[in-house]
What we know:
This protein folds into 2 domains: 6-178, Alpha/beta knot (3-Layer(aba) Sandwich), CATH 3.40.1280.10; 198-261. By secondary structure, the protein is an alpha/beta fold. It has 10 helices and 7 strands. Strand 1 (24-28), helix 1 (33-45) and strand 2 (50-54) form a beta-alpha-beta unit. It is 43% helix and 11% strand. Strands 3-2-1-6-4-7-5 form a 7-stranded parallel sheet.
Amino acid sequence: MGLPSLEGEGYKAAPIDGLPPAPAVILVGTQLGENIGTTARAMLNFGLHDLRLVRPKCGWPSIKALKACSGATEVLNAARLYQSVEEASADLRLVYATTARPRDLPKPVVTAVEAGRKLRDGMADGLAVGVLFGPERTGLSNDDLIHADAVLTVPLNPGYSSLNLAQAVLLIAYEWFQAGGPERPASSTAAARRPATKGELVGLLDHIAGELDQTGFFRTPERRQSMLKTMKVVIQRAGLREPDIHLLRGMIKALAEGDRRSR
């Protein structure tokens, strides 16, 4: 049995501006333009339209992507380019990262079914959400995975677990679409417990690092790089909310200013 079409769910074809909010799809270091095109096709099948490209190795724009998209040109035309995952996810509050390999980062692991449901729940609470997909041959690096809240895996035949990029995007998009239903109203406490954006977390780390630089805490560039990576993992894992960020930055500022007055 084939996958259900949007038409069967009361969906009417519409331009990008007319589509309801949907998770962002972030492709990192994509090597083949055809894979971007078929990803756009998979996205639009299930109402996803926010495509973000991080340093595509195939170059952009890509005529091969256009030829492979089977009419999903509006997704390609609206695609945005970024230099880093940090920039591409700055406005997002919930991010899942796809990987087929075990990693040494302490991240929760969810299935595609769980991710589809949690993405829906997050969006019902007004959160901007997204999913990271790595390069075709190597997948996401640990430096990219740091920005994710959890790792997303798809159970496959252990004897042959190879998916191409568009297949992986289609599976996640399908589960997100299937998790839809009657829209629940946003919780009255949703704003108060809203996770910080990835950009706010980066801003907090930069604030801490800047103050530590003033004290000579890191001592060497190598130690600074290593410790900042560890600090980034800790800050991401803490599950900080917007009010937490404001509180912590206010405390850091007060401590730094008090230290300077005492000198």
